[in-house]
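Limitations
The structure tokens in this dataset are predictions for the assembled complex, not deposited experimental models. Users should treat interface geometry with appropriate caution, especially where small molecules or nucleic acid strands are included. An illustrative entry is reproduced here so readers can see what is and is not provided.
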Amino acid sequence: MPAESGTTLLPPAPAGDPMVPRPVRVESVRRETRDTVTMDLRALDGEGLVFAPGQFTMLQAFGVGEVPISISGDPARPDLLTHTVRDVGGVTGSLCRVEPGDLLGVRGAFGRGWGVEDGRGGDVVVVAGGIGLAPLRPVVLAVLAERAAYGRVSVLYGARSPAEMLFTDELDTWTAAGLDVHVIVDVADRSWTGRVGVVTELLPDAAFDPDRTLGLVCGPELMMRYAAAALTDRGVEPGRVRVSVERNMRCGIGLCGHCQLRGHLVCVDGPVFELDRIGPLLTVREL
Amino acid sequence: MRPVGELLVGHPFFAGLDEEIIRELEGCARNVHVHAGEHLFREGEDADSFFVVRKGRVALDVHMPDRGHMVIATVEAGDVVGWSWFVPPYRWFFDARAVGEVSAVSVDATCLRDKCEADPALGYALMQRVAQVMYQRLQATRVRLLDVYGADHAG
Ligand SMILES: Cc1cc2nc3c(=O)[nH]c(=O)nc-3n(C[C@H](O)[C@H](O)[C@H](O)COP(=O)(O)OP(=O)(O)OC[C@H]3O[C@@H](n4cnc5c(N)ncnc54)[C@H](O)[C@@H]3O)c2cc1C
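Predicted assembly:
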């Protein structure tokens, strides 16, 4: 199905000037892993932030800088903006050190999301690697909110080690709610009783009908390339496999051209793309 | 309990092989059950068999002086453990430990090698399958070598 046909793929227009950040207060912070935290934010003006799964905001640590961060919260809870941030540098490091009560700035939500509703009536395979589960968590929550609308739903999650897995307390809940959740790590000690290997090894465990499956893939680009290829090898059409592409961004609204990838502006045409639109470009770093 | 030949016929590793060929292996094979935490084999031992996993999960471990036992791969039902039986010096490189209860068919390596020598069609069919397993494990290992979830890749 062409991407443009899914109505909720279109970003809800952010209120006011999209270049002006809205102040939000940090309500709570949970440490997910050694270098990653999940934070709940609430807008000072009390107005919720409606978003589609897969969209991101430009999140600003005042005086430090602004970075694109996917929304990892529940799309049914626009009052609470949830982000999961991994400390990889200046801005993300600063964001990972916030405490309840701190103020941050938010622009957005921006971008084109997963369009998970295109999977209604069929099977959905979610493949996530590392922090890539964060942008896919809203997909899982959206599916759970209307579980009966979807067929078989698999969540295949790969991480570097058991200690670096996100949302560990929720994975069992997802299974209990009728999702087929499989986890694999690159390496583990003996206390780990789960699988060790790469995320694509989980695909044979997922039951789906390739002709009516929507595949949603997020993680490091190399992992996405292999996972997307594994899905198409199983017979899922490239147009029904979607990946979330990360490129450095500035404005987030298609003005500055910073995130240009050949003919696409990742911030507005993406970050989610169908494989048949973006596949070959997954190997291109910055343009 | 089902005869061991039947267990081999129904196993994905042998899918596509003539039942007649699989039956040739029957004389080399026996059914084994391994309890959680017990070993199928240990590093340094002679690789005198290979295991066709029917139920449960097998962890391939290696002991590192500074980190203890690290699991470098797991093998699931439907897969096979080990190819050291096939390549000199026929010695195991890792420990193979049952994570939970494991049922497998253990195939005697000397018996199997003799059969492969005697019947090239069987040998070729088996080699194709072993090569497939080796190829998949090698690819998975290469990807993990790149440490894609590492700090340089935000994901
Ligand atoms: C659409 C989109 C959604 C994102 N969602 C999330 C999210 O939910 N959670 C999260 O933690 N991060 C997310 N990121 C990545 C995040 O924006 C970057 O990690 C951040 O911009 C790095 O800024 P910094 O100042 O902390 O690090 P810098 O000091 O700018 O860079 C530190 C290191 O990180 C590398 N780096 C910078 N940006 C990226 C990137 N986009 N991808 C890979 N490596 C990068 C740099 O090459 C450098 O090695 C997303 C990016 C995009 C484009």
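Some entries come with short summary sentences. For this one: Strands of chain B lie at 29-34, 39-41, 49-55, 57-64, 68-76, 80-81, 95-98, 102-108.
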